[in-house]
Each structure stands twice: as structure tokens, then as C-alpha cells.
Amino acid sequence: LVSVGNICRSPIAEAVFRKLVTDEKLEHKWRTDSAAVSDWNVGRFPDSRALGCLRHHGIETAHKARQITKEDFQTFDHILCMDESNLRDLNRKSNQVKDCKAKIELLGTYDPQKQLIIEDPYYGNEKDFETVYEQCLRCCKAFLEKYH
């Protein structure tokens, strides 16, 4: 699960998906992680508003931001991102990787409400983080149903 900085949207999506997988007792079938296309926030914890939103929904995460690697394209089956800019960056990076096996898509592709883009809540407020959480939950549930 990929976003620009890996401190707002993608860690929320990662934590949501991990909880869904755990609740369904499918941990042994899924390796879940998130990353950034940029190196701006490498090593940082998620935004405090993202952490607060997750805690409000009973979800904890110990994620630290990292940048996507060539190995990610070679080992993950799916790389899901948040917006068109992420998609362009990931497709460009994947073209430089030999043996890329990852299917790169927008996470919003799986939204039953057809909200294709998951907007960056960084410059917004708690309500914007809640919107991201709700979108990620819908999309992750639909993705898991399709591939489980």
C-alpha cells in the first residue's frame, strides 16, 4: 500500500488491511506492508492524526515510514496506491525493475462506492482522516473478498 510520504493514507490502509486479515485468521496467507514513493519521511511514525483515527477504531500500528524498493516490485503480488500521481510514479519505477511481478493499481479501484482516489488528508483535519479510514476499510474489504 503506497502513498507519497507513508505517514497518512498508506499506514492507515496497511493497519486496516492487517486487522481485516487477522480478524479473518488469514495472517499466514498475507504479507502486508506500506511504503512511500518519496524519501521525505523515512523512519518517521505515522501522522498523529492518522494514529488517533486508527486508535478510535481500535487499531494499533507500530509502522515507520519507508521508501518503496526494487525488491517490493519483485516480491509483492499487489502494490495498491492512493492517487494518480502515486500510480504514475510506481509505474515509472516498476519499468526499471527486472522481473517485476507486482500488479500496480489504485486501491480505490476496489471501492464499492466508486471513490477512485483516496485524497491526502495531511493538510486537512480529523474528519479528512476519518474519510480516508472509511475509504480504506471499504476498499480493503472488497480487495480481500476478491483475492481470498
UniProtKB/TrEMBL annotation:
SUPFAM superfamilies: Phosphotyrosine protein phosphatases I. GO terms for molecular function: acid phosphatase activity; non-membrane spanning protein tyrosine phosphatase activity. Residues 2-146 form the Phosphotyrosine protein phosphatase I domain. Its main location: cytoplasm. The keyword Cytoplasm applies. Acts on tyrosine phosphorylated proteins, low-MW aryl phosphates and natural and synthetic acyl phosphates. This is Low molecular weight phosphotyrosine protein phosphatase.
